[in-house]
Amino acid sequence: MNDSADNALPPISVEPLQIGDLVIDPPILQAPMAGYTNYAFRQIVREYGGVGLQATEMVSARSFVWLDQQAEFPDRLWGVEDEARPLAVQMWDNDPDTMARVGERLVGEFGVSVVDINFGCPVKQVTQSAHSGSYLLRWPEKMFSIIQRVVQACAPTPVTAKIRLGCSRECINAHEIAQVVEEAGAAALTVHGRTAADFFKGSADWEKISEIKPYLKKIPLIGNGDLDSAAKVVEAFRSYNVDGVMIARACLGRPWLFAQAAAALKGEPVPADPSLTEQRACLLRHYDLVVKRFGVEKGTMLMRKFACCYATGMYGARAFRTAAAKVSSQAEFYEIVENLFPRDPAPEAVESAGAS
């Protein structure tokens, strides 16, 4: 669904989100996504506006410590020190001491607004190989230890947690986990409406997310999953018992989605999607920011998947996506964007269509 400027949704009363002493207004969060939500993407989102709290890519606490010992800087923290606030950094591991050590560094040296702990990632590298992410949903007592240690290390900066409904449809334990998260001292809980076994198949279960709210005494509940339009964001607040929402994959090729959702919550006309010419310019600015940080060769490689995101769902975009997925040089990238990225119809074509 593409909300247009002529489509003002009925207003809904939504309070700002309170995470510890931090006020998030509007209560719309940008999800941390590995390989995507780097500084360049966050900058693009910030320019469109509408996001209450942004997050970095998730950071491996163990890798952070190792890189620090080698006097190296984690790429995933690119831009964090000088970036606008509020800003969250999400980290993952299964060792409370390592997590606390890194959390303390994120707060003390990087000055982040929120430290988020990932208990939801379902990928094998994190779950099976590192016994972290959603793997830990099997071990609530371990989660408690991790959260408690990180909260102590990061105080007074708020610590939050992100989970899934459970490990599988046969083992949905989010109600129990929610209480553990709160009792350990976390300041907010985000729940993705699928289980770890689901990965991203099927639909997010917002009823199940909503059912968690009564189990939380003081901290807010943030819902996540399948929010791909301003209308769905409004519906999430209208129909489900959540205090905030988190937008993930849908924003990767549509960084203006937050501004549309924020307008919709106020009952204002929802801004139309930018023209294809404007979207092309946005993609090129994104590319230039990445190249400036990583150099032409690595930056071009990193932008392959992002370029494909920008053209998702567009008519006639298959040729562009196919070419973008294989691009290997800066000149080739510019050529592909110029020649294959979908274009706005010519004015005479629009007039002809309107008259027919």
TrEMBL record:
Keywords of the record, alphabetical order, are: Flavoprotein, FMN, NADP, Nucleotide-binding, Oxidoreductase, RNA-binding, tRNA processing, tRNA-binding
Note the Pfam families from the entry: Dus
- Name one molecular function that GO assigns to this entry: tRNA dihydrouridine synthase activity
The EC number(s) given in the record are 1.3.1.-
tRNA processing as a keyword of this entry, yes or no, is: yes
Q: Does the keyword Transmembrane helix apply?
A: no
Annotated FMN binding sites: P32, M33, A34, Q90, K162, H192, A248, R249
Superkingdom, taxonomy of origin: Bacteria
DUS-like FMN-binding domain: residues covered: 30-338
Q: Which cofactor does it need?
A: FMN
Q: Which residues form the active site?
A: C121
UniProt cross-references to InterPro entries, sorted A to Z: Aldolase_TIM (IPR013785), DUS-like_FMN-bd (IPR035587), DUS_fam (IPR001269), DusB-like (IPR004652), tRNA-dHydroUridine_Synthase_C (IPR024036), tRNA_hU_synthase_CS (IPR018517)
Q: Quote the catalytic activity from the record.
A: a 5,6-dihydrouridine in tRNA + NADP(+) = a uridine in tRNA + NADPH + H(+); a 5,6-dihydrouridine in tRNA + NAD(+) = a uridine in tRNA + NADH + H(+)
**What is stated as this protein's family in its record?**
Belongs to the dus family.
Q: Tell me, what does this protein do in biology?
A: Catalyzes the synthesis of 5,6-dihydrouridine (D), a modified base found in the D-loop of most tRNAs, via the reduction of the C5-C6 double bond in target uridines.
Question: What name is this protein filed under?
Answer: tRNA-dihydrouridine synthase
Q: Which organism is it from?
A: Blastopirellula retiformator
Encoding gene (name): dus
